[in-house]
Design a protein that fits this description.
It is built from six helices and two strands. It is mostly helical and 133 residues long. It has a domain at 9-77 and 110-120. A two-stranded antiparallel ribbon has the order 1-2. Helix 2 crosses helix 3 (53-73) and helix 3 (53-73) runs antiparallel to helix 6 (113-120). The two termini are 24 Å apart. The model has no long low-confidence stretch (mean pLDDT 84).
């Protein structure tokens, strides 16, 4: 796991206008974890070719969206993405059903749907062969 985030706390608060964290100390573990998820989603293609300013902006926004998602889930989103429900006696639990957009996006890319929407425009989610990659 990397300790370098695409987005720092200043970007999170001033550009993305996030308010899910009290301060940088609380935000950075989530931003770092989210950056790792974004890197895996794009299969580290940003290391093969330096991102343009446009791509960088969307990578940062996807990171912030993913950090907020992880924070709201209370984890890295995998439980909500993988458990569709169970019952034990009188206890019935259902987390993020398997049909919602975030669950599908988490299962395929490891980031929530809104982050996927930011990443799709970068070209980094393309899974085929492309000249120059």
């Amino acid at each position: 796991m990397s300790n370098i985030s695409y987005a720092d706390y200043l970007f999170y608060t001033n550009t993305y206008h996030g308010n899910g964290f009290a301060d940088a100390t609380a935000a950075m573990p989530f931003l770092n974890k989210a950056s790792d998820a974004v890197r895996r989603a794009i299969r580290y293609k940003d290391e093969m070719r330096v991102p343009t300013a446009f791509q960088t902006e969307h990578l940062k926004r996807a990171t912030c969206l993913t950090a907020d998602f992880f924070n709201a889930q209370g984890n890295d989103g995998t439980i909500a993405g993988s458990v569709s429900g169970y019952s034990i006696g009188d206890v019935n639990m259902q987390l993020g059903g398997g049909n919602d957009a975030d669950s599908r996006s988490m299962a395929v890319y490891g980031v929530p749907q809104r982050a996927y929407d930011e990443l799709i425009v970068t070209g980094y989610l393309y899974r085929g062969i492309r000249d120059g990659w």
